[in-house]
């Protein structure tokens, strides 16, 4: 514990210079504004900012991206409260009580709650990021091919199950992502697969252009499909967070922070699920349940604490296992690789201070959102009223630049276009994008380890099911899939009711 | 979904008919993947075994996708996809989408990297985008020429600003 604190203090001291502070404040602001604008997501913001950081030293580049991430997730709450439109999917739960408070003339109070919840959520997540990453990394050192294979399968299955509202479509999206990762030369024999003679496809599909397409171009098409409407902004009171809100609902803050961080750790399950889960748990435990959805301070606090705690949580598997905890974290992981940082189990051996640097970056970002949360209300309202029609063509130009700049080839622009169009139609058909992204990231891990495991035991599948950690992961995957089969789900529910009913009667 | 969101969100789900078409499209693609994987060189001359053959993993993924596509088709048929009539196709509904697509693809494929400076290509794209999508509103207000002038100035500012920011400030090479 003390080692961690010392590591954090030393990393923070390294950033307390004019340039990193300036960069942290500017990037948090960019994230905040992008997150607040409906239609521009955190994933897209980080993907586009990755382009800007190409020529920067790796520490400063990641500082930019982490601050953009935290700022964007917080920024989403502003449009949720003021316009009843979530700026990012993570803020959808904040609309329920945030907008209700705004309609009562308490938008300022709601923004104050969002600020305090987001900052506290980030801090709780930071604590567990520093605590769990080394432990998980050490555990992962014991992983062999079989465990890594199941980790990839588990990531796609759980992400497909929890994102969106149709697990079957979530899994299909995840498996499409896994297949996309197999396009190009295979890792063992450099044999071209599904390249159709296109030379550029031999190198495979790069993650950043695919993400910029699926989250940027697809979003431009989604926004432009409907006539752009102007939102109505309610009057607001003071935005200064009230200590009483935190002291009165401290249990909710801690519970939501824990839930948010926990959901962040689960591969590919992002901030939106964290916010909804925290909100639902707060509602279940609340003494003021009837106020939820009608302007509950506790409900808004839970949602905002949960989604921001998810950000550091999502970084835990990135750093310890090289498995992203959310879609924006997948882009961050790609950016780390571009900047020569190899996340994964060896990070605590090769670069032990890096984890604490990420924690320090999160802290600087939380200070940034606190400052902007208190000061930038009126300018932000002007930005929110800026017509979307003026923003969307510029976003598309940025999508072109963002996909081209990484390797300076037009092929990546065409990949972005293809993923944008396919992503748009998949989204219209209710296929979630997060499992698809996770599939692309985890495809290589899955393939290499499946083939390695099969070769090691000459095709014997037994070790995939008999090694303790593999067996637990297999059970988790099987339970996740089976819990969606109606007769099994209903049978378990009946058995559980019978068991608990019997226990109550005997008591 | 069994999570909390399902109780709290009013997600719009596509019709059973749409699911049926999506399932059929997925089934066709996944069968193509399986066939492609089976026909892929097994590289036996390089001592590749069945476990190291390049087509193994894509083939398994294709089979899994085909299985899930069949499940989606079955589910949609049980939900009455075959008895639902096709919704009336209204081209007006898709006009904005089609125009956006044509403009974006035209810019990325036709204008970029064909000798035109990036800032100018971007300015033309942004200006054209605004002129087209604001035209109806401007026509009703009688401010078409003002709208065009605004779009051109806005496009030039956007194009030059992106060019300067990326190429000169952040040293990123543009197409």
Backbone structural class of chain B: mainly alpha
Helix content range of the residues of chain B, please? 55-70%
| Shape category of chain A | globular
Q: Sketch the topology of chain B as an H/E string, one letter per element.
A: HHHHHH
Question: What structural class should be given to the helix and strand makeup of chain A?
Answer: mainly alpha
- Summed up, the domain count of chain A is 1
Q: SSE string of chain A, helix = H, strand = E?
A: HHHHHHHHEEHHHHHHHHHHHHHHH
Largest sheet of chain B: none
Mean pLDDT of chain A: 89
Describe this protein's structure.
The complex is a heterodimer of chains A (507) and B (175). Chain A has 507 residues and is mainly α. Chain A has one domain. Chain A has 23 helices and 2 strands. In chain A, a hairpin with a 6-residue loop joins strand 1 (184-185) and strand 2. Chain B contains 6 helices and no strands. Chain B has helices spanning 5-8, 16-39, 56-78, 91-111, 118-141, 144-169. Residues 1-11 of chain B have low confidence and may be disordered. The interface between A and B is large, with 78 and 73 residues.
Features of this protein?
heterodimer; A: 507 residues; mainly alpha; two-stranded antiparallel ribbon; 2 strands; B: 175 residues; 6 helices; 70% helix; 0% strand; disordered N terminus
Secondary structure layout plus pairing:
The complex is a heterodimer of chains A (507) and B (175).
Chain A: H1 2-15, H2 18-36, H3 42-52, H4 58-83, H5 92-103, H6 107-140, H7 145-162, H8 167-182, E1 184-185, E2 192-193, H9 207-225, H10 243-248, H11 250-265, H12 271-285, H13 297-321, H14 327-338, H15 347-350, H16 353-375, H17 377-384, H18 388-405, H19 410-428, H20 434-456, H21 462-466, H22 468-482, H23 486-506
Antiparallel strand pairs in A: 1-2
Helix pairs in contact in A: 1-16, 2-4, 2-16, 3-4, 3-9, 3-14, 3-18, 4-5, 4-6, 4-13, 4-14, 4-16, 5-6, 5-13, 6-11, 6-13, 6-16, 7-8, 7-20, 7-22, 8-20, 9-18, 9-19, 11-12, 11-13, 12-13, 18-19
Chain B: H1 5-8, H2 16-39, H3 56-78, H4 91-111, H5 118-141, H6 144-169
